[in-house]
Amino acid sequence: xxxxxxxxxxxxxxxxxxxxxxxxxxxxxxxxxxxxxxxxxxxxxxxxxxxxxxxxxxxxxxxxxxxxxxxxxxxxxxxxxxxxxxxxxxxxxxxxxxxxxxxxxxxxx
Length: 109
Fold this sequence. Notes:
Blueprint: H1 9-15, H2 25-38, H3 43-56, H4 62-66, H5 70-78, H6 86-106
């Protein structure tokens, strides 16, 4: 494993929030998705690409991401400047769907 693929403790402390102060569900989905895409990869790599991820996922608005279909998945996977992982892209969509269901069924997330 190259040093690029191994997160260091100092990078992880700088990148991973210890507490999420969310104004809306988009904030939660954004932080969850960053953790998903960083899993198994360099934390610094995803941090460098994060603006492009936010563009690819339209700002991580849960209602929009939850409704993504196959064309949207292809669009995200072809977006320049991001890690192109179909499994992680589909997981992000499923997380948005689950988040909305929890919010609806339990009066908040």
